[in-house]
Amino acid sequence: VSRQLKEEIRRGFARLEDPLAGLLAMLESSSDWKGKGHSLGYCITTELQLWIKEHPAVPQSGTKLKKLQARVLGMLSQCPANLLDPLISIYQLHTADRNYLLEHVSHLYLQGDYKEAAILSIKLKLQPDQDVEKMCTPLLLQDKANLVEDYVGEYPELQRKLLQTLDAWCDPSFNIRDITRPYQGLSRYKPEKFNRRVLSKLVFRLLERFNVDPALCPNVINQRHLRTLNYLFYKRFVEKTMTEENWADHIQSTVGENRWLQGHLVQSLLRHCDVRGAARWARRCRVPPEMLPRAVAEELQKLHVQDRVEEVTKADNYENSKKKDYYQLPIPRENIHFLQTWEETLQCWEKVLQPGRVVGVDMEWKPSFGMVGKPRVALLQLALKDEVFLLDLPRLLEQAEAEGEKEKLPRFIQMLYSDAAITKLGYGMSGDLSSLAATCSALKDTEKQMQGVVDLLAVDKQVDGLSPEHSHEERGVRQPEKGLSLLVQHVLGKPLDKTEQLSNWEKRPLREEQILYAASDAYCLLEIYERLCKDPESFGLGSDPTESLVGKQNKKPRAKKQLNKQEAPSPSGQECQGPRTEPSCPPAPISPREFSVICDNMLQGLGRYLRCLGVDVRLLDNEDDHRKAAEIARQEGRVILTSGLPYQTLRSQVGEGRCFSVNCSEKAKEQALQVLKHFHVQVSLSDIFSRCQ
């Protein structure tokens, strides 16, 4: 606003006998103030707000003010959002009679102005005196979940009431039509956005945002655990990609002592096993005998306490041929060290933090199966040429905190990642570092500071002949290899054995199979890198492999300056020929028009937002099965955007790098920024609305 206009406005106020009544009269008779943006009415209102601060004698009180407040209240539901705060402040609506304000909001509600009633309630802080279920139900039916979040945002008691209400609606025996029936004539009503799956997703988002104990929502939590239970049975008995011990660990931690889940466990056991097998597993999972069908209970009595749980299907013969079929660690077992004390870890760091080292880095965490919160790293693997170190991160962090030196471990990890003289090898490092930051807040900036990093995920797009279909033809009946396993197969001849991938990595002691899997995952990176450096042309990388490998990092550039070139040492200590770009160089950004995605059906808001930015987006319909996303992704070369439990399934169908898990607690805009940053998509002005909406 020009200085001249401001001065003119202020002179006008000074001439008025009653500036508050004058402003109101102007706004009531103005056609301009109903527009959006910084209208003349907005400029005058905000100038009066400032002018009042400089002239404390201006504000009124008593009957005259009450009359002005009554007039301004009638205007608030129609005026632009940016006028609300200034008008509330000028006319001191917070001092108005609370019952009168509540009555006015109730009048708006009865007129069907639910959004306006909620916004005014938030501005005037009326929520504690209102019925949270009554206020929020029509907003949810209009797909205004963000407004509902704001409505309860500052009131923990209301947050709990809202969550309990939403959880009650998610009870399988509850008829959702009982809620929707009174609102059939509601404008902008979106019934497709009001179902158990959408409500369940909202509950998880609110639990995480407001840090509420999930036990408050037993229906939603039980349903999520039931989906996990079904997924585990699919992995064990249909896909046959989970070991017996691994499966049992997850079943026990998922079901626990929950009677309802134990009942579903028994039903699933009877569908997939014979009576004897069901009895053995029921005992292993501590299902109370009174919950078992008579035939299973009788079989249970025949079993000896010492019996080891046997395989429950005869189809699991893949373990017999494991050694000859899969990649094997080339170092002796005694060279794999599981570290749980600071003294042991110090010796590890002395070996790792040496200039010229090449280190394979990997991390493991317990699968969340779509529950609240980000995964926390349970194991950090560091592989050198002759030995592998497995760091028990939770134990080490706990120990350091008890000794009052909780910054010790993060400091060493930061030293490793920021040292350009040490080459760090990883596969999909961005996801690992995100989990590392969730585990230890001191490591949240590690990705910005890292140097000397080679993410072998970039090789997926460069190495000739790398595709799941190629692997499937070669290996016959077994599931096709994907991600790192496919790269290991192509470069080293045999795939990784991924049967321990979804292990419970927080349980101690780790099983021998877990230790070997974790060590292999980190060590194979060294062998891939060495092989690609020695014979790049065989893999279609050209004569200068380090430039193509190291020059495409999954991170942001640290600074806009010329970077020095240096030699990349191979794991054996030999130098790879030819100069290479410093590892901190980012990959070339791509245009939204080159980026194709398929959005899972719980991310339709994100899909629409990306489409506005010019991205080639396909959306699953609400009734579509999640697996359809993998089908479309494979047929059309799209990246899958999903969230929660489906990520585990979909990732295994298209491989790492082609499936991205979005944070459901974020809004569509933040989710879109997360996706664009991760895939290095650069949006220009010409991309916006370049696609049909």
UniProtKB/TrEMBL annotation:
<protein>
    <submittedName>
        <fullName>MUT7 Exonuclease</fullName>
    </submittedName>
</protein>
<dbReference type="InterPro" id="IPR002782">
    <property type="entry name" value="Mut7-C_RNAse_dom"/>
</dbReference>
<feature type="domain" description="3'-5' exonuclease">
    <location>
        <begin position="336"/>
        <end position="537"/>
    </location>
</feature>
<keyword id="KW-0269">Exonuclease</keyword>
<dbReference type="Pfam" id="PF01612">
    <property type="entry name" value="DNA_pol_A_exo1"/>
</dbReference>
<dbReference type="InterPro" id="IPR012337">
    <property type="entry name" value="RNaseH-like_sf"/>
</dbReference>
<dbReference type="GO" id="GO:0006139">
    <property type="term" value="P:nucleobase-containing compound metabolic process"/>
</dbReference>
<dbReference type="InterPro" id="IPR052408">
    <property type="entry name" value="Exonuclease_MUT-7-like"/>
</dbReference>
<dbReference type="InterPro" id="IPR036397">
    <property type="entry name" value="RNaseH_sf"/>
</dbReference>
<dbReference type="InterPro" id="IPR002562">
    <property type="entry name" value="3'-5'_exonuclease_dom"/>
</dbReference>
<dbReference type="Pfam" id="PF01927">
    <property type="entry name" value="Mut7-C"/>
</dbReference>
<feature type="compositionally biased region" description="Polar residues">
    <location>
        <begin position="565"/>
        <end position="575"/>
    </location>
</feature>
<dbReference type="GO" id="GO:0003676">
    <property type="term" value="F:nucleic acid binding"/>
</dbReference>
<feature type="region of interest" description="Disordered">
    <location>
        <begin position="543"/>
        <end position="587"/>
    </location>
</feature>
<dbReference type="GO" id="GO:0008408">
    <property type="term" value="F:3'-5' exonuclease activity"/>
</dbReference>
<keyword id="KW-0378">Hydrolase</keyword>
<dbReference type="InterPro" id="IPR037432">
    <property type="entry name" value="Mut-7_DEDDy_dom"/>
</dbReference>
<keyword id="KW-0540">Nuclease</keyword>
<feature type="compositionally biased region" description="Basic residues">
    <location>
        <begin position="553"/>
        <end position="563"/>
    </location>
</feature>
